[in-house]
Amino acid sequence: MGYxxxxxxxxxxxxxxxxxxxxxxxxxxxxKKIKDMDDxxxxxxxxxxxxxxxxxxxKYSTDIVQGLTNAKAAEYLARDGxxxxxxxxxxxxxxxxxxxxxxxxxxxxxxxxxxxxLAYAIQAxxxxxxxxxxxxxxxxxxxxxxxxxxFSYFQEAKSSKIMESFKNMVPxxxxxxxxxxxxxxxxxxxxxxxxxxxxxxxxxxxxxxxVSSHGCKVDNSxxxxxxxxxxxxxxxxxxxxLETRNVAFFSTNCVEGTARGIVVCTGDRTVMGRIATLTSxxxxxxxxxxxxIEHFIHLITGVAVFxxxxxxxxxxxLGYTWLEAVIFLIGIIVANVPEGLLATVTVCLTxxxxxxxxxxxxxxxxxxxxxxGSTSTICSDKTGTLTQNRMTVAHMWFDNQIxxxxxxxxxxxxxxxxxxxxxxxxxxxxxxxNRAQFKAAQDQLPIxxxxxxxxxxxxxxxxCIELSCGSVKQMRxxxxxxxxxxxxxxxxxxxSVHETENEEDNRYLLVMKGAPERILDRCSxxxxxxKEQPMDEEMKDAFQNAYxxxxxxxxxxxxxxxxxxxxxxxxxxxxxxxxxxxxxxxxLCFVGLMSMIDPPRAAVPDAVGKCRSAGIKVIMVTGDxxxxxxxIAKGVGIISEGNETVEDIASRLNxxxxxxxxxxxxxxxIHGTDLKDLSQEQMxxxxxxxxEIVFARTSPQQKLIIVEGCQRQVxxxxxxxxxxxxxxxxxxxxxxxxxxxxxxxxGISGSDVSKQAADMILLDDNFASIVTGxxxxxxxxxxxxxxxxYTLTSNIPEITPFLxxxxxxxxxxxxxxxxxxxxxGTDMVPAISLAYEAAESDIMKRQPRNPTRDKLVNERLxxxxxxxxxxxxxxxxxxxYFVILAENGFLPSLLVGIRxxxxxxxxxxLEDSYGQQWTYEQxxxxxxxxxxxxxxxxxxxxxxxxxxxxxxxxxxxxQGMRNKIxxxxxxxxxxxxxxLSYTPGMDVAxxxxxxKPSWWFCAFPYSFLIFVYDEIRKLILRRNPGGWVExxxxx
Amino acid sequence: xxxxxxxxxxxxxFLWNSERKEFLGRTGSSWFKIFLFYLIFYGCLxxxxxxxxxxxxxxxxxxxxxxxxxxxxxxxxxxxxxxKFEISYNLNDPQTYVKYVKSISTFLDxxxxxxxxxxxxxxxxxxxxxxxxxxxxxxSENGVRMACRFKRSWLGECAGLANxxxxxxxxxxxxxxxxxxxIVNFRPRPPTSNASIPExxxxxxxxxxxxxxxxxxxEEDANKIGEIRYFGLGNGFPLxxxxxxxxxxxxxxxxxxxxxxxxxxxFNEELRLECKVYGANIDYSEKDRYQGRFxxxxxxxxx
Lengths: 1035, 303
Known about the structure:
heterodimer, A: 1035 residues, alpha+beta, 9-stranded mixed sheet, 28 strands, elongated, B: 303 residues, Immunoglobulin-like, 2 domains, 5-stranded mixed sheet, 4 helices, 14 strands, potassium (chain B), transport (chain B)
């Protein structure tokens, strides 16, 4: 973070601030950083727009004609550094890799691995022939972490590669004037004080104080979110530097015209630079799923340590040596580590990420997959996300009637009566008095998809006319233009003079469009049903009403008029002079009004509705005008029908706003300037008491404040804050994107900075895709629970053999290798297949999960998995173990206490219950066969487990067995178990021995028992909602 | 485990929340209910488990294990046992071999004559090797079966009946007592061809006996092991002692023994010896060093 540079910026612009700060220079760095961040959150302290051009020149010792001298420029360049944004501190690849290796769940496995190596070291130091089990286990654990770490690292690298492809690599050029000479230089070399010339199509190279302009318009959308191009002129029009006309900002685009300006800030000191610095300085907190995994690790560690210590004490009491007891302790703790779970969780998240990517949600960070699912508030940008990001003609007023135009993306909406003469006249005016034109070679594209050269409103008109009246180009060819006065801010109109279509008619046609009130002033007649009628007061009232109504819809209204010029005054060949107007521009004939809006996307109202039913609050935050914002909010349902703002209530009841009880209004529209004066408490109050909120005219810094406010929101009187998603495309959104729990950037219209700051990218820029994200996020949370419940269950049949081996001295029923075969082999596919499980109920109809109460893994899940199902599974395993030993001659009664003799290599005549004598190897083969049988039994009981884990509340019979991956998983684990048992050579490789067919069936009754038990449990759960069974067992 | 709800100070109130009368996050009645539930639950599970074990036991025969494929072919074990396949001692230090001597004495005690006197339980099966002694089917019909007497004196110099109560250990001519592991209803069959039997062992091949032969395991030890002498009925395992009817029907059963005396082992050197039994249904395994054979390392030092 370059706070040093920020300092120098303050030296340059806000000297009084620096003085105030100087006594604090001794502060610690950390404090300064916080202060610095707060400073960045404040509004832009630019002052040059209020100075005269001369003052600015003086300040930067530059000249309005000659520009800087080369020497001065070099000096400034050396002082300020290049004009480029400091790239956000990119994390080196190895740090990212290490984060994957040591983050979250991996820590648990690493701890396990280290304990294993420790145990092996103890054994190696104290025994002559240490058993290799602990060593292998340690190696396998490390391998699992490293492999899954690599896997998720590459997974993330893949999505960040997609990110990089978005980057614009073309170096920018700038035209500067130095020592009176125009020169094209690299934009990076531009310094403060440089005189810069920009023209339509250029990117503004730095923050400019405009000194002269010719019809210059800039597109500030990436900075403010406002899609409308804005005029730039040398006059200061507003105190706020972001609103004034005489400042052009770094990295915005000049749409048309030319302008000259003096560079006032470069690089990180520009407004854009400050936002970028603010963004990279913000720290985003842990993802909800990371918190869940942490909680899970706490639980698992708790259980592991509890078991470990208990059996350590028991072992010591039973007369084992301290060292042996320590090794048992480590063994038990390690046995509690679910080796396969890390991989399972990673794969489940990856699968969901892929599924979301197919639905146009690209997730940058795997953990963010679930975040949308727990989101309780979405702060959405307006332009481009909720709207189509193109001006479209929405309404027309002619023949004293408002007509509605079709604004849908696919032209499926209703149309209006096009037969009226007036409409034809209006269309002609709109087509002729219009400088926009389609770019070449797009004839095969649908009209709405074509690119247009020209500003947004003219493009809207062009498309509208092209759609309803056919080729505008032909119309223009037939009516050749002879003169034109372009739009300027003093006239507020644009006019052009054309020949008429009729060859014999030598009159000229004057067409004009502009601000409606200005146009009306110039008209004396009005066209009604194709006939000119005098403009009377009644018509003027009608006009006013229509104008107000359309304006109230947040639409931008244009007025149109025309005049067929009398031939006697303006004969053919009359020289129209546009600079010194030598023709009439009064007493025209008013034709109609057309109003335009950036219409909402078709899918958005539905998506907003879904969010609402899913308990998610949607807040609109936009840089646009409150009226437009409110209109769109109403259009998409962010302010739902029937809900009123304070202002609405006031106007309905005809009382002043101050008399309305703010509690009565559920909706509210808050203006950025009001927001500035709100205290934190007032802000919280607004967020808490209004369900439907629109923030308009907000600055980037305010967006950040809003997001922080939302995150502070307390839900259901719990201590944790709300989980906030923010969508945005502009640079101005990026601090908010970063601060949000999940930042969602736009793939098409989004700026690079916003994509960098975001966790997720909507490839189709459509708000509706967020709903998909929410749905997938909620589903994966549910399914991860099931997956974890499934995986954890088999932990019990894996630990208990070791416990009994220690406690009652029986031959070991299940070895380390077989445990690994379960955790990393047979359990894998079924656990992953649960990620494909369909939702049990409509997950979009319930409230967002409560992060404090609704945990991924809770005590109830542990209780069910460990205490109940796991225990039944263990019995199933032990039963097969006893069957095999008994059928080979060792009855259960003989086994207790046999361990020392059994494991004695020199004892080669160990007697069984029938008096037969066994050599060490012979009985070891039986023991390994038992391991295999125990393993197969776990597979068998896990069949039932995966089926019961499919649902948490419903019966399997309600849910069905439609999950094909799960069915595949059942067959796969069985086939794998058979393969491991029967493949020749497995006895050497994994110490697994072939089983007699009957031994496969030992665990069947237990498998069945699990199924029946859990079905009954779920039945009680459904029958008795909120009852004891639900309280104790619903996870 | 659900601590930290109120931050760090939560532990104490988690342990005992006096306000809500909660111990470890649960009230007394809540603890009682969950405890009762698990008590009943585990009670039922234990019942079911015991039930299935009982069902298992019902399927088992009392006299013959269901499967014997892992225990047969039989192992060949020896007394005294080796530790890590090694028997090493110092001639001059009785402490180093007393455990071996003791182990042989204890083992041979069961073969002492006074233990075999009871006529109802023991019978003489002859002083020469004979064929299998059939005692009926493997069921309870004929009751407990008689056991053949095995005279300890047949072990000759290794019987420990003479003055030498150290079984030759003291003089550096140690005895090993070898036995073929017991397997219910197993009838070892004498070798059908002599191909596999080393020449030195051929002299002891005779009908109705499973011969045993010991020799050096390593080529270079060939001249260091000297003469090996064998004692026992037929210098091998005579067939009249088979088959074994199992612990229940054949409680007094004495398996035939062979004593192997190494009379001229080279001292102060590790010698690897291998003893093998030969028979048609005797097998050996790469991995199992005691199946049908054993090998043992002798290190006798005299300094």
